[in-house]
Write a sequence for this structure.
């Protein structure tokens, strides 16, 4: 008897073997490596041998899950076309779908040798094993490489009658290993926090899932219910708890899948949400004013007194129902400045206080009546070089109640005391080093000249300002800066800058840009329009655009981290700027948290010849970004520009627009007031961008040239 004959006889013997106490084992879940259309894996457990699971090519697998560990020693299989063809397969068992044991190797199902019952089942037995999962791996049939199972039945193993069946040997010429993926993913779940006590707080769940063949998806479950799926790493879910309505205990878990359908659940992560009920108590707030009857130019300080059981987050000040100012920290104050009879009228102010839960209370109304006598202003001379700006509505020169320091670039010495006209200092460096107190003054000799930047970093008070100005007779002190971007930098508060001339030194003019454009000049040397490189229309050309940042006087809040009033409540008056990119710049906020300047005044000042561009990009590189030629550049809020004289603020070789610039450039600014200003021969009187609630009234503009 040869080996094959012996194998067939042994197989037949075990088909006839019976078990004592056998019972059908229910199949809970069926998964497979793949399936031909309309032949899903579950058809092998539907108690209908006429339906089949089919897959191709060879080495496809199907796995049955009993739901719990059972004793099993046989399988009844109805194979696809099992009555007419031979099939070869392996059978594996496992208790956890991780570690597998092969119980049948290259089992040969032959209808001619293994009898089939009336429903087409053949029984295959093996040594009794404890198993929850049974894995069938098919290697094709005697007809083709297709794998198919119509039905599978398992019975619990009682007392086995008979001998154990040896391993089957390869049959039908089919042999070789199969590439199985029977290993489920590994997965853990972590939460960014497990306790939530603040409204609108979020918890991020992060599933760390790995698999020998790759994770295809991770499902997120809340209290056992699926609520989200992530199909790519990192596998995350963010949960936001809005209010106390979300209070409770939540159990979160994840289920990770691989391409073979293997799955594994994570441990449960518990998140406890206990958000206090929202605060329904609104703040209390009252409003007061230093004066309610204004008859002379000056300021009124509005003070809001606000409190709340959980803290005040901000106070808004409203003028006639329109938001005028917001303060987020105490003291909650707002200053209204009235410069002339133009401000006459009745103003109704209220304050509105908020707490962290957005409860709000509005104060009672404070009414301020302004009745300032008319000033009959004459704000201009003939040209920018000879104009004398006179008016009677500018802020008065502060009374010096403290120490006066003197600086004389010609006859001074930094070794002097600096506290008398007979012993002045010599340099701006020495002046910058002094500590000025409220009521002090820093005065520069008329006709003197300085090349360094003056840094006005001192803080006066609303009732005791600091004066920076001139002494003696003659021309204004000149700050003709030869380095850096600014002639005078103001970062303090309650400063009055009076009677200074600030300009860029010729040696420090910005360089010409690389453009081939040229501008023609008139006999006075003033450029008017851009021409092509050959001059155009027979006109001569001898001028290119200078491009770079030069500022005469810059008010900035860059000291805000040390003093919340940085860049606020300053006055520039009776002064002049020329040959700059921006004559005066009231800076805005920046990304580092510095706020915009506010509550400053520019009064009775000549702002002329802002002729440098800040940006002049060739059209081929970028269009519509040229800028420069700013007279007064306002990026702040609640500022006043009044009784000023503007002339010749223009750049004439703009790549984008040919001409660019203007006297009042207002960008990202609000609640500014411009009145009684005069504009002569500038690019335009005003440009606006990203700004709201600004007022411009009783201004005059005049052009005496053509372009």
């Amino acid at each position: 008897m040869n080996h094959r004959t012996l194998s067939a006889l042994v197989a037949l013997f075990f088909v006839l073997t019976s078990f004592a106490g056998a019972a059908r084992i229910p199949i809970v879940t069926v998964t497979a490596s793949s399936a031909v259309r309309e032949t899903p894996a579950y058809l092998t457990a539907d108690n209908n041998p006429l339906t089949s699971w089919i897959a191709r090519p060879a080495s496809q697998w199907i796995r049955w899950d009993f739901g719990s560990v059972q004793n099993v020693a046989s399988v009844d299989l109805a194979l696809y076309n099992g009555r007419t063809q031979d099939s070869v397969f392996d059978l594996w068992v496992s208790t956890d779908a991780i570690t597998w044991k092969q119980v049948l190797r290259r089992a040969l199902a032959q209808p001619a040798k293994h009898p089939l019952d009336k429903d087409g089942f053949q029984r295959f037995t093996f040594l009794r094993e404890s198993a929850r999962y049974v894995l069938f791996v098919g290697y094709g049939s005697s007809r083709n490489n297709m794998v198919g199972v119509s039905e599978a039945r398992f019975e619990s193993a009682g007392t086995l009658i008979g001998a154990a069946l040896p391993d089957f040997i390869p049959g039908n010429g089919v042999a070789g290993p199969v590439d199985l993926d029977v290993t489920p993913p590994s997965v853990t779940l972590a939460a960014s926090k497990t306790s939530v006590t603040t409204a609108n707080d979020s918890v991020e769940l992060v599933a760390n899932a790995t698999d020998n063949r790759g994770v295809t998806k991770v499902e997120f479950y809340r209290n056992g219910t699926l609520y989200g799926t992530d199909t790519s790493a990192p596998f995350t879910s963010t949960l936001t708890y809005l209010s106390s309505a979300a209070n409770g205990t939540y159990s979160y878990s994840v289920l990770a899948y691989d391409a073979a359908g293997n799955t594994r659940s994570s441990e449960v992560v518990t998140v406890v949400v206990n958000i206090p009920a929202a605060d329904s108590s609104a703040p209390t707030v009252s409003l007061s004013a230093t004066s309610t009857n204004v008859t002379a130019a000056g300021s009124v300080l509005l003070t809001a007194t606000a409190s709340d059981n959980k803290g005040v987050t901000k106070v808004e000040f409203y003028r006639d129902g329109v938001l005028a100012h917001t303060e987020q920290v105490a003291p909650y104050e707002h200053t209204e400045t009235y410069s002339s009879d133009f401000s006459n009228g009745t103003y109704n102010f209220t304050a509105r206080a908020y707490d962290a839960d957005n409860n709000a209370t509005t104060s009672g109304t404070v009414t301020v009546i302004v009745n300032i006598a008319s000033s009959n202003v004459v704000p201009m001379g003939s040209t920018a070089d000879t104009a004398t700006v006179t008016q009677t509505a500018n802020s008065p020169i502060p009374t010096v109640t403290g120490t006066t320091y003197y600086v004389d670039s010609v006859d001074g010495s930094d070794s002097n005391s600096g506290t008398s006209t007979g012993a002045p200092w010599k340099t701006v460096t020495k002046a910058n080093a002094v500590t000025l107190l409220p009521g002090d003054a820093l005065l520069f000799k008329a006709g003197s000249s300085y090349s360094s930047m003056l840094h006005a970093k001192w803080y006066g008070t609303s009732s005791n300002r600091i004066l920076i100005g001139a002494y003696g007779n003659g021309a204004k002190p000149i700050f003709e800066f030869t380095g850096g971007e600014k002639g005078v930098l103001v970062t303090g508060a309650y400063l009055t800058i009076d009677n200074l001339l600030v300009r860029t030194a010729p040696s420090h003019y910005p360089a010409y840009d690389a453009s081939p454009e040229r501008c023609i000049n008139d006999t006075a040397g003033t450029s008017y329009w851009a021409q092509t490189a050959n001059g155009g229309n027979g006109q001569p050309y001898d001028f290119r655009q200078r491009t770079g940042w030069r500022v005469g006087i810059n008010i900035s809040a860059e000291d805000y981290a040390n003093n919340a009033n940085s860049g606020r409540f300053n006055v520039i008056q009776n002064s002049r700027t020329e040959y700059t990119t921006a004559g005066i710049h009231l800076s805005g906020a920046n990304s580092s948290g510095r706020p915009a300047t506010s509550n400053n005044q520019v009064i009775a000042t000549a702002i002329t010849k802002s002729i440098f561009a800040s940006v002049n990009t060739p059209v081929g590189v970028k269009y519509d970004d040229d800028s420069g030629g700013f007279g007064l550049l306002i990026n702040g809020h609640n500022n006043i520009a009044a009784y000023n004289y503007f002339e010749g603020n223009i750049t004439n070789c703009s790549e984008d627009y040919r001409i660019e610039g203007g006297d009042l450039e207002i960008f990202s600014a609000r609640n500014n007031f411009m009145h009684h200003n005069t504009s002569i021969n500038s690019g335009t009187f005003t440009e606006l961008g990203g700004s709201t609630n600004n007022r411009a009234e009783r201004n005059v503009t005049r052009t005496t040239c053509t372009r």
Summary: Residues 1-20, 159-178, 375-393, 520-542 have pLDDT under 50 and may be disordered. The CA atoms of residues 536 and 693 lie 44 Å apart. Helices lie at 3-15, 428-433.
